Structures are given as structure tokens and as C-alpha cells.
Amino acid sequence: MAPDGMKREIAAALAAVADRMLANVTGANGWNALDADGRPDAKGLLKMWNVRWRSAWTR
């Protein structure tokens, strides 16, 4: 089992990823997680496919 400090660091990193995904993955940008520079990735590797109402975050 990981030490408590490491668990907190992991939880913070996962929360940061989740917050970024909630902010970036929207229908307005084609359900793309976006590159670090804020543009959709050219190869489509960061795009969510087959997004349905039950799996999409609606605003």
C-alpha cells in the first residue's frame, strides 16, 4: 500500500486531469480533449468517439 502522502499526490493529479477533461471535452470542439496548446490534436487521438447523452457532460 502506498504511503498517505503519495495517495494524496495521486488523488490531486487525477482530480486535475478530470477537471481539465470537464473543461475541454465539449460538443463545441468535437469532443476533443485538446493538445496542451488548446488546439484539437491533428491525429484525432484525443477525441472521444460515439459520445451519447448518457456519457457526455451536459452544460
Helix-strand topology string: H
For the sheet with most strands, the description reads:
none
Instruction: Count helical runs.
Output: 1
- Number-wise, the strands total 0
The value of Rg in angstroms is 14 Å
Helical amount: 25-40%
Low-pLDDT stretches are none
Structure commentary:
This protein is an all-alpha fold and 59 residues long. Helix content is 36%, strand content 0%. The chain is built from 1 helix and no strands. It has one helix spanning 4-24. The relative contact order is 0.13.
Helices and strands in order:
Layout: H1 4-24
How would you summarize what this structure contains?
The chain has 59 residues and is an all-alpha fold. The chain has 1 helix and no strands.
Q: What attributes does this structure have?
A:
single chain, 59 residues, mainly alpha, 36% helix
